[in-house]
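Q: My labmate handed me this sequence with no annotations at all. I'd like to see what the chain might look like in three dimensions before we decide whether it's worth expressing. Could you predict it?
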Amino acid sequence: MKIKITFTEPLLGSTPKGDVYEQWIATRTPDPESADEETATAPDLEKGVTGFHRTEAGEPFLYDYVLKGFFKDACSMLRRAPDTQSAKLKAHNKIIDGLVFIQPRQIILRPSGPITMLSRPLRASTAQGDRVAIAVSEMLPAGTTAEFTIEVLGGVTDAALREWLAYGAHRGLGQWRNAGYGSFTYETER
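A: Here is what I predict for the chain of 190 residues:
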């Protein structure tokens, strides 16, 4: 199934930008050469800017696993609604992980305008009490598009896929999606 999504609200980047991420890992690992995400501790909420992965040509993109994660979240939420296709699906995380494949691995985002920055408050309840910091993210404008293909080897119906994609109008991709950012509509061709 070929899919084209069009963002109806701005999309916020969710990847730590360049050296901010590398510096954060390096400060938490005795040997920076062996640094990886699994050996690091939680980041300081007051540091860093998030953005988008970039191709060698500088185009922003999402990895395929972002869509798989969206499908798992959509199915999980829609399972709670009666009479949905998702309510019929058992062990949905395992099925989506093993039987739903998205191509290409790097899904190019086609901005409808310039990439801007959005600053917003980020609230966190910690052991030391409530904290407020400023979060800064790259933002792609509404109208940005992306195209990809979904291949299903079994266990998921076209109706369930369409249900999840339609859910994107309510809860989108990227950061701050609970505030409506990253919401999208979709078009399909079989």
